Amino acid sequence: FIMAKQVEQLEKEKKELQERLKNQEKKIDYFERAKRLEEIPLIKTAYEEQRVHDMELWEQQEEERITTLQLEREKALEHKNRLSRMLEDRDLFEDRLKASRRTVYEDKLNQFQERLAEERRNRLEERKRQRKEERRITYYREKEEEEQRLREEQLLK
């Protein structure tokens, strides 16, 4: 009997614990739902505020970028105007430099052409001499062969 009462008591405590846990779970769910319902408008307003703040920041940065670009352009124009006064001097210097380099180039080209012509003449003379030598050797060889042939014919006769 005591054991049955104890088992019954344990069952009862177990059910109560489960009931309490279930109620606590419902409370937590309700609380979370309520918290979310309260947070959603706050999150939306925070998002809108952040979006407005970001837009203002972007506009400010864009204005700074534009003013910086305008200042850089003004400086570039001043620099261009300042350097344009030197344009004639630069062109004069370039012309002189090109002229001096052109004369050096033409001198070297003439020297090369002269050496080329001399080398061609030398090679032409050498080829002429070799051909003359070859013709002389060929002439003597043919003459000797002719004499040899004649001697052989006379021997045969």
UniProtKB/TrEMBL annotation:
Keyword Coiled coil: yes
InterPro entries tied to this protein: EIF3A
GO function terms (MF aspect): mRNA binding; translation initiation factor activity
Coiled-coil ranges per UniProt: 3-34, 59-149
GO term, biological process aspect, one: formation of cytoplasmic translation initiation complex
Top-rank taxon: Eukaryota
UniProt entry keywords in alphabetical sequence: Coiled coil
Record-given protein name: EIF3A factor
Organism encoding this protein: Heliornis fulica (sungrebe)
Lineage of the organism: Eukaryota, Metazoa, Chordata, Craniata, Vertebrata
